[in-house]
Description:
Blueprint: H1 10-36, H2 49-64, E1 68-71, E2 74-76, H3 81-88, H4 90-107, H5 116-141, H6 146-175, H7 182-214, H8 270-285, H9 297-305, H10 332-372
Helix pairs in contact: 1-4, 1-5, 1-10, 2-3, 2-4, 2-8, 2-10, 3-4, 3-5, 3-6, 3-7, 4-5, 4-10, 5-6, 6-7, 7-9, 8-10
Amino acid sequence: MHVPDGFINAPVSAAAGVVAAAAVAVSLRGARRELAGGGTGGGTGADRTAPLAGLVAAFIFAVQMLNFPVAAGTSGHLLGGALAAILVGPYTGVLCVSVVLLMQGVLFADGGLTALGINISDMALTTTVVAYGVFRLLVKVLPRSRRSITVASFAAALLSVPAAAVCFTALYALGGTTDVPIGKVFTAMVGVHVLIGIGEAVITALTVGAVIAVRPDLVYGARDLACPLQLRTSPLAGTTPAAAPDQTADEPTPTPIPAPAPATPRRSTRPLWLAGLAAALLCAGGLSYYASSSPDGLEKVAHDKGLDTKTEAHATADSPLADYSVKDIANPRLAGGLAGVIGVAATLAVGTGVFVVLRRRRAAADAAPAVDAPAPAEQG
Length: 380
């Protein structure tokens, strides 16, 4: 659903850019709380979210290269807003998808640069907000279990894709550059993206379910399932022991000192991180060669309804990685696979860098009051 330059006029594109910039700014503040363990669902695993968030961005980039057929002559691909929001939180999820869209637009000429604000507002903001809202609602009404998290993930992802199609239709109604009846655009966009939403839901539910199976503490949307450690005491605890033979009743009874609770071992995130990275590299570097070559939902609708008559050439169309292929490499499988690996590496580096900086700034802000607080005045 990457909107190219020329689909929507300059004023609406600029307005969408302002909305996208505001959303990213708000998400930067919200992500600092999520990465530091604050906000809804904070607690277990929160301090390990930053490396996972960068991996989520890289994984979304990789899976977006796997177009799957949804109808005759039409394909679809993961949008990723629901997956990111459930795994690492809604604010961090907006940033994850925004990083992916930025890398795709700059390096691979996928999605217009003047339309970047439209794509962020549509594919990052709309999908994340709708998906996480549906997810939280379902989690509250469904039984408290891991299966409920997976079911809620499926439904949230399923609804997020047609919601993005509705958002695009609204933007096109405001600033479309071709004279096409908006009712036809709405019907075509929502119809095909309901089918794409099924694929999005399957990918999201399988991924969330796989992570929950091995590390539920690292899934932001499942942190409420983590039970806090409870120290069970003996039934005799708190009773007054009988006085010793050489101890009178008037003498105070010593208070027993409870044994310290055993420390909960901290599990390493490295196995999951390496497995996720391997999966991303496999998708982008190998499986992407077998992806459907049919146009995606927006491309198909644009061609059939005449939305693309004023499409402008991409500013980075001459990029050595344009169209997800390394120039000057004749073998298409090698060229596409290498481009995918480069994209995963670039997205992982940028995403992880952003989230680590946010995490450290939050940690520094939390530590500042303790450092700057004045020492209590001495009495006497």
